[in-house]
């Protein structure tokens, strides 16, 4: 919570929940990444928060961008970045979207199978491709599934196929899981990457780049290592596995770039109990899973919640959203400790919400409007 956000909220009179994001924090985060990994290019993960002001700031600072769709590519171009600073990082793309991205000037595409390679060869001839490999995401608070990536043993075949179809087999990528709190988790994936580099070199194909993915965390309830610790651990692993032939590297921070820059202000709509002898209260907010807090699914991301009554005695509460859907419960398996003095109508501040909130907010489920966003 910055002083600038506090001042903005004090002067705000509108009704309903809102996100307030401080661009000065985003600037500081970008500079921290640049300093921690000075020889690595930053490709901001647009999906984390595509607000035009965020994209414009990062474009001015020199950032590149990881995009998941043609719309995101267009948003980045509108923010002032050139197409050579854009990666189409989604491994699942319609061929017509690949063609559209190519027409817009994009020449860097992610793949994880031969069928995707063939689409790119037809729709974006001569482009550079990198193959995403599966890796262990143990320790991540938001683990990634097997939806993206192939087994490392399959990657050489995929990239050799790209080479034979006239594409440039450019490199590899992996993702160690979002909100990864262990800086050492990049080591195993880099070991696999170095082995794939050697395999392809023996086939006469020279890879040039390793995309280190995202995973860089923001602070929620628990402390996280500083970006510097990640930079040191990653560089150590690069030297260990690649020796003096360290490839070009890129990173795709999303949550780590904007997560701690934002705070959501919400309101308590109702406080109740389900029975007379129930020891746990239910606290309903005017924001829930469908209004921007989708990452509370399975209670994986536990946001810090501040109130005007902090310091008072607390009691366990189930937190839920306002919609008429039974899955719109935020924290029930592990109830949240909130002040006993909390009242209906009280404001609560949900910190660390600059990433993956506004873009998860529905267009109008149950008639609730999308989450308002203010960038200061």
Automatic annotation (TrEMBL):
| UniProt cross-references to Pfam families, sorted A to Z | Orn_Arg_deC_N
Top-level division of the source organism's lineage: Bacteria
Q: Which InterPro entries match?
A: Ala_racemase/Decarboxylase_C (IPR009006), De-COase2_N (IPR022644), De-COase2_pyr-phos_BS (IPR022653), Orn/DAP/Arg_de-COase (IPR000183), Orn_de-COase (IPR002433), PLP-binding_barrel (IPR029066)
Please give the pathway this protein is involved in. Amine and polyamine biosynthesis; putrescine biosynthesis via L-ornithine pathway; putrescine from L-ornithine: step 1/1
Give the required cofactors. Answer: pyridoxal 5'-phosphate
Domain (Orn/DAP/Arg decarboxylase 2 N-terminal): residue spans on this chain? 26-258
Q: Give all N6-(pyridoxal phosphate)lysine modified positions.
A: 47
| One GO CC annotation | cytoplasm
GO biological-process terms attached to the record: putrescine biosynthetic process from arginine, via ornithine
What is annotated as the active site? 324
Reaction(s) catalysed by this chain's protein: L-ornithine + H(+) = putrescine + CO2
Give the EC number(s) listed in the UniProt record: 4.1.1.17
Give any GO molecular function from the UniProt entry: ornithine decarboxylase activity
Per its UniProt entry, what is the enzyme's top EC class, as one word? Answer: lyase
Instruction: State the UniProt keywords alphabetically.
Output: Lyase, Pyridoxal phosphate
Stated family: Belongs to the Orn/Lys/Arg decarboxylase class-II family.
What is this protein's name? ornithine decarboxylase
> What is the organism field in this record?
Beijerinckia indica subsp. indica (strain ATCC 9039 / DSM 1715 / NCIMB 8712)
Write the lineage as a comma-separated list. Answer: Bacteria, Pseudomonadati, Pseudomonadota, Alphaproteobacteria, Hyphomicrobiales
């Amino acid at each position: 919570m910055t002083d600038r956000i506090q001042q903005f909220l004090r002067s705000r009179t509108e009704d309903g929940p809102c996100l307030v994001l401080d661009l000065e924090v985003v600037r500081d985060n970008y500079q921290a990444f640049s300093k921690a990994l000075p020889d690595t290019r930053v490709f901001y993960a647009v999906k984390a928060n595509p607000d035009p002001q965020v994209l414009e700031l990062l474009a001015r600072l020199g950032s590149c961008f990881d995009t998941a769709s043609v719309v995101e590519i267009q948003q980045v171009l509108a923010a002032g970045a050139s197409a050579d600073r854009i990666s189409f990082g989604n491994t699942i793309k319609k061929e017509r979207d690949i063609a559209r991205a190519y027409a817009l000037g994009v020449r860097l595409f992610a793949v994880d199978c031969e069928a995707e390679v063939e689409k790119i060869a037809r729709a974006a001839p001569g482009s550079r491709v990198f193959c995403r490999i599966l890796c262990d995401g143990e320790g991540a608070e938001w683990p990634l599934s097997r939806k993206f990536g192939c087994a490392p043993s399959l990657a050489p075949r995929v990239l050799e196929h790209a080479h034979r179809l006239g594409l440039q087999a450019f490199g590899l990528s992996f993702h160690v899981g979002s909100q990864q709190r262990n800086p050492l988790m990049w080591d195993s994936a880099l070991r696999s990457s170095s082995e794939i580099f050697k395999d392809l070199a023996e086939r006469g194909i020279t890879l040039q780049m390793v995309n280190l993915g995202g995973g860089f965390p923001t602070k929620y309830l628990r402390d996280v290592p500083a970006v510097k610790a990640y930079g040191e651990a990653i560089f150590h692993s690069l030297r260990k596995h690649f020796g003096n032939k360290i490839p070009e590297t890129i990173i795709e921070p999303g949550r780590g770039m904007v997560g701690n820059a934002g705070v959501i202000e919400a309101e308590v709509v109702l406080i109740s109990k389900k029975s007379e002898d129930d020891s746990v209260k239910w606290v309903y907010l005017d924001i829930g899973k469908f209004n921007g807090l989708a990452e509370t699914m399975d209670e994986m991301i536990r946001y810090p919640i501040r109130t005007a009554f902090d310091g008072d005695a607390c009691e366990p509460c189930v937190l839920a959203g306002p919609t008429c859907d039974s899955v719109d419960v935020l924290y029930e398996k592990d109830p949240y400790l909130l002040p006993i003095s909390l009242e209906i109508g009280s404001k609560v501040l949900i910190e660390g919400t600059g990433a993956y909130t506004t873009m998860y907010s529905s267009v109008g489920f149950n008639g609730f409007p999308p989450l308002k966003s203010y960038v200061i």
